[in-house]
Amino acid sequence: MAKLWAGVTAGNTDKLADELNSSIAFDSRLYRQDIRGSIAHAKMLGAQGIIAPEEAEALASGLEGVLADLDSGALSVDMSAEDIHMFVEQELTNRLGDLGKKLHTARSRNDQVALDLRLYLRDETGEIQKLIRDLMRALLDQAKAHKSDIMPGYTHLQRAQPISFGHHLLAYCQMLRRDLGRLEDAARRMDVSPIGCCALAGTSYDTDRRMEARLLGFGDIAANSLDGVSDRDFCLELMSALAILMMHLSRLSEELILWSSWEFKFVELSDEYTTGSSIMPQKRNPDMAELVRGKTGRVYGDLVGLLATMKGLPLAYNKDMQEDKEAVFDAVDTAKLCLGVFAPMIRTMHARTDNMLSAARGGFINATDLADYLVKKGLPFRDAYKISGWIVAKCLAEGTVLEDLPLEEYRAFSPLFAEDLYGDIDIRACMERRVSEGGTSLASVEAQIKQIEEFLRA
Ligand code: ARG
User: Fold this and answer.
1) How far is CA 166 from CA 1, 57, 87, 139, 143, in A?
2) Which sequence positions are flagged as catalytic?
C-alpha cells in the first residue's frame, strides 16, 4: 500500500523495515473503535466549521459504510497497510475521493491510537468484569451447597483447624471482589479522552475536544496534550489488575490440582474440564487449572514487558509505544479465556465431602480446641498448649486420635479433664465455635453468603 506519509522521505522503505514498522497484524482488531473515533472527529470538524457540515455528514456515512462492510466481511483489512488508522483512512479515500483526505485535519495518529486503545480497553474491562461476576456466582453457589461440609483448613499445607468448604470458597469471592474494585478504578482513569491532543502540542484549529469526548462517552479530556499522547498508564493499570486477578485464579488452580490428586481426592472436576493420558488409562488430568496457573506467568510477563518498554521514553510519542498493544491484548485475551473456562469448571465441580471429612478427622485439627478446653478449666494457655502437645504425641505414637483416647489417659496428663471434653473436641463443634465475624461457623458463613449475594445483586 502506498504510504500516506510519503513527503520528506520517499516512503519506499525496505521490506523488512516495513515488517518491523507495521502494526496492522495486531491493531486491526481496533477497527470499530478507530471508525467510531473518526465519526466523532468528522462531526466535531463539521460542527466547528473546520469542514462544511455536508462534508462532515458525507465523511460520517462513508465511515459507517466501511464499518458495515468490515463487520459483514464484505471488506477485509488489507494486511499490507501500515496500521489500522492508515487502512481506514485509505479505504475511506478510495470511496469518497478527495473528501476522505480531510478527515485527518486537526488530528494525528498519536492521539488517534491513544483514543482507540482507551475505547477498546474500556469495553474489554466491562466484559472482564462480567466474567468475574459470573465466576463469583459459581463460587457462591458451591459455597452455599457446602456451607456445613467440614474440611481441614491448612497453614503451611499442614492440617490446622476445621473449616467448612463453603468458607474456603468464599475466601476467593472476596479476592474477586477486590479484583472488580481494581478494574473499576482503572476504568475510571481510562475514561479520559486524548483526542485533540494531536501530535503532541494541541492544534491551531478551533476544535471542540469536549464535544468529541461527549460523543464518545468519555467523562473527561486529557488536560495536557503531551501527557494525552504519551500516557499508557491506563494499559499498565489494567494489566496490573489482571496480573493480580490471574494470581488469584492461579492459587485456586493450585488448590484444585492438589484437591483432584489421589492423595487428597477432595474434588472431582467434570469431564469437560479434565483430560486423559495417551498411555495411562487411569489419568484424569486437571489441565485447565494447570493452564490457568501457567498462563498467569504470561500475564505477569505482559505487564513487566510494557513497564520496561515505557521506562526510558522521553515525551511525547515514540514508536516504542506501538509495543503496548500486543502486551495489553494478550493480557486481556488470556484473562478472558481463563475466566470463561473457570466459571463452568467451578460450577460443575463435584466435592467429595466424605474425603474432606475423613481428612479433617485424622489430622489433630482439634488440638487447639483441646488446649482451649484446659484454658476454660483455668489453666494458663502456654501450659495448656504444652499438655495438648504431649497428648497429640502420645496419640501419634499409638496410632489413635484425640476423639478416641479414653478419659483415664487424659486424666493422667491433667485432672482438669472430664467427660465434657469430648463435646469440645468434636470436629463439628470446633468449627461451629468459631463464631467471630468472618469466621467459619455456619452463622458467619451465612452472613458472608448474604454479603456476596447483595454485592452481586448491586
Ligand atoms: N501504529 C502506531 C502505534 O500503534 C500508531 C501511531 C503512529 N504514530 C506515528 N507518529 N508514527 O503506535
Assistant:
1) 60, 58, 53, 9, 4
2) 156, 277
Tell me how far the alpha carbon of residue 311 lies from the centroid of ligand 1, in angstroms: 18
Confidence of residue 163 (pLDDT cuts 50, 70, 90): very high
pLDDT in tens, 341-360: 999 999 999 999 999 999 99
Domains of the chain: 15-105 (1.10.275.10), 113-155+164-190+227-358 (1.20.200.10), 362-457 (1.10.40.30)
230 Cβ closer than 6 Å to some ligand 1 atom: no
Q: DSSP letters of 213-250?
A: HHHTT-SEE-SSHHHHHH--HHHHHHHHHHHHHHHHHH
158-164 and 220-221: which strand pairing? unpaired
DSSP assignment letter at 4: T
pLDDT digits (tens, 9 = 90+) for 50-60: 999 999 999 99
CA of 319 relative to ligand 1 center, distance in Å: 6
Check if 83 has its Cβ closer than 6 Å to any atom of ligand 1: yes
**pLDDT tens digits, one per residue of 179-232:** 999 999 999 999 999 999 999 999 999 999 999 999 999 999 999 999 999 999
pLDDT at 397: 96
Q: Is 110 in the pocket of ligand 1 (CB under 6 A)?
A: yes
pTM, to two decimals: 0.94
Contact 445, 170 (CB under 8 A): yes
Is 220 in contact with 193 (CB distance < 8 Å)? yes
Q: Is residue 34 within 6 Å of ligand 1 at its C-beta?
A: no
Q: Map grid coordinates 448474604 to a residue.
A: 450
Q: How many CB atoms lie within 10 A of CB 253?
A: 24
The Å distance, Cα 419 to ligand 1 centre, comes to: 79
Using alpha carbons, list the distances in angstroms from residue 49 to 4, 56, 155, 336.
25, 9, 69, 43
Q: What is the DSSP letter of 162?
A: E
Q: Are 225 and 200 in contact (CB under 8 A)?
A: yes
Query: How many Å separate Cα 233 from the centre of its chain?
Result: 17
CB atoms within 10 A of CB 134: 18
Instruction: Look over the chain and give the mean of its residue pLDDT values, rounded to a whole number.
Output: 96
- Average pLDDT rounded to a whole number, residues 243-257: 98
